[in-house]
């Protein structure tokens, strides 16, 4: 976990996302980590003034289809939150690749941003360190929501 090169977010740089509709789509696996990321994402959305809702899906594999439907139904952006921890079989690679490729495809197919908050981890501690929990070094839920908001605002400006 590096975090090196991450932009410094100052209070005066906080986006005004009033009027944006955002859907947080979160997997149900690894509840402590996922709930921490949801808390970070909702904090970012509250600070920005965006309207948002939360939906849960069984796991990270299901994130792309739920994000696509949310965006097709009128959301301006989605925030995908999931946790995939490496095990002793190739399952980790299949699910990680499917979630990543699927979410990329959703963003490109819909022309709307998907904040990427899918943690691919070697162990649970790496997730705890990134989940925005007390003592965590990073808050990937907040970062994913902030990226979705900022990108939605850029796309709105580009489209005029």
Primary descriptors:
single chain, 160 residues, alpha/beta, 47% helix
* Molecular shape: globular
What is the H-and-E element order?
Answer: EHEHEHEHH
Number of beta-strand segments = 4
Radius of gyration: 15 Å
Low-confidence stretches: none
Distance between the termini: 38 Å
Summed over residues and divided by their number, the pLDDT gives a mean of 92
| Strand ordering within the main sheet | 2-1-3-4
Strand coverage percent = 15-25%
Helicity level: 40-55%
For the report, how would you describe the main beta sheet?
4 strands, parallel
| Main structural class | alpha/beta
Q: What's the number of helices?
A: 5
How does this structure look, described?
This protein is α/β, with parallel strands linked by helices. Helix content is 47%, strand content 19%. The chain has five helices and four strands, in the order E-H-E-H-E-H-E-H-H. The chain has helices at residues 31-48, 63-72, 91-110, 124-130, 140-159, and strands at residues 21-27, 51-57, 77-85, 114-121. The protein has a four-stranded parallel sheet with strand order 2-1-3-4, with helices on both faces. The longest helix has 20 residues, at 91-110. The radius of gyration is 15 Å and the shape is globular. 44% of the residues are buried.
């Amino acid at each position: 976990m590096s975090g090196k090169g991450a932009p410094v977010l100052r209070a005066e740089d906080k986006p005004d996302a009033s009027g944006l509709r955002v859907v947080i789509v979160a997997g149900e696996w690894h509840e402590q980590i996922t709930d921490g990321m949801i808390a970070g994402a909702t904090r970012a959305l509250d600070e920005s003034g965006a309207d948002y809702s939360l939906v849960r899906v069984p796991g990270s594999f299901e994130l792309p289809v739920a994000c696509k439907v949310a965006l097709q139904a009128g959301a301006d952006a989605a925030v995908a939150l999931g946790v995939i921890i490496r095990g002793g079989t190739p399952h980790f690679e299949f699910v990680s690749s499917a979630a990543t490729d699927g979410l990329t495809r959703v963003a490109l197919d819909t022309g709307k941003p998907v904040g990427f908050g899918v943690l691919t981890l070697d162990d649970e501690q790496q997730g705890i360190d990134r989940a925005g929990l007390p003592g965590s070094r990073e808050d990937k839920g907040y970062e994913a929501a902030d990226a979705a908001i900022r990108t939605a605002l850029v796309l709105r400006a580009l489209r005029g």
